[in-house]
Design goal:
alpha/beta, Histidine_kinase_KdpD, P-loop_NTPase, 330 residues, Signal transduction histidine kinase osmosensitive K+ channel sensor N-terminal domain-containing protein, Rossmann fold, globular, four-stranded parallel β-sheet, 14 helices, disordered C terminus, 11 strands
């Protein structure tokens, strides 16, 4: 759900139970954050030495992916799935390390806070005012064999924080007034419950390919969220192909068509032509003139998403139609 609820503690408890049953378990990387109760659970487990990496004059201790692949346990523990690796390691992101382990036949236990899901991060920023910089594509979690929600009532988490069980004493007051307000934690808990409920419900009825148009990362992530929940392929039409958008498209395995700069009348024609060829089940568009023109012209279900910096209320009211027409519930 959030930092401090006990994700790493629960993962280590599970690892100890597996070891007691004779399962070959190795701790690839676990962050105790100075919590004595968590560190105590490492006793008796095989812990792989970390790999020192010098970055900006500081020595960081990171996951030694090559050593873990050579050791090849049945189960590996790799904490903090959303972590960004420093330069010099095989992959940019830790979730890519985890994927390499699973491709090698190693079962991986890992941890993730709900705000680090890529399609949830911008919602969390709107709720908390804090930008989430490290994210994981939703499909990585969707493809997991099992997802376990480690839940803790917001009041209890704030109490743990006040007792110094989450952050050092000098950071407690700032955390309680910032990210860890009661309102923020309640919202994060609801998001976490919704995510796990959606995964537990299984994959819904087929929707058809999802086609998204535009250069907005927020609009793309909304389309990716739907595509991954329905298990459908994702297609992106973009005019300017911003670098950040292309990185997201690659991470979410979307097929990309770069159209180049178009005049307003040409955009709808390009969208219609591609939609005829692809026959998508859903077309995702940013709120604006193109969405207004496409309504009534495209036979597909439309999902209209406010791009960055635009509030959905006034514009949706002016357009005179809902943000989504008959989209099946995931």
């Amino acid at each position: 759900m959030a930092p401090g609820v006990g994700k790493t503690y629960a993962m280590l408890q599970e690892a100890r139970e597996l070891k007691a049953k004779g399962v070959d378990v190795v701790v690839g990387l676990v962050e105790t954050h100075g919590r004595k109760e968590t560190a105590a659970l490492l006793q008796g487990l095989e812990v792989l030495p970390r790999k020192p990496v010098v970055y900006k004059g500081i020595t960081l201790l990171e996951l030694d992916l090559e050593a873990l692949l050579r050791r090849r346990p049945l189960v590996a523990l790799v904490d903090e799935l959303a972590h960004t690796n420093p330069p010099g390691l095989p992959h940019e992101k830790r979730y890519q390390d985890v994927l390499a382990l699973t491709r090698a036949g190693i079962h991986v236990y890992t941890t993730l806070n709900v705000q680090h899901l890529e399609t949830v991060a911008y919602l969390v920023e709107r709720i908390t005012g804090i930008r989430v910089r490290e994210t994981v594509p939703d499909w990585v979690v969707v493809e997991a064999d099992e997802v376990v929600l480690v839940d803790l009532p917001p009041e209890d988490l704030r109490a743990r924080l006040a007792e110094g069980k989450v952050y050092p004493p000098e950071k407690v007051a700032e955390a309680l007034k910032g990210f860890f307000t009661l309102e923020n934690l309640k919202a994060l808990r609801e998001l976490a419950l919704a995510e796990v409920s959606g995964l537990a419900a299984g994959r819904p009825a087929p929707l058809g390919p999802v086609l998204v148009y535009g250069d907005s990362e927020r609009v793309f992530l909304r389309a990716a969220r739907v595509a991954e929940r329905f298990g459908e392929p994702l297609y992106l039409l973009t005019e300017t192909a911003p670098e950040g958008l292309l990185k997201l498209a690659h991470a979410h395995r979307a097929k990309v068509k770069v159209l180049g700069p178009l005049r307003p009348p040409e955009r709808l024609l390009a969208l219609e032509a591609y939609a005829r060829r692809l026959a998508p089940g859903l077309v995702v568009l940013p709120l604006g003139p193109l969405a207004e023109e496409a309504t009534g012209r495209l036979p597909q279900t439309l999902l209209l998403v406010p791009p960055e910096g635009i509030s959905p209320g006034p514009q949706a009211k002016r357009l005179g139609f809902p943000l989504c027409r008959s989209l099946p519930a995931p």
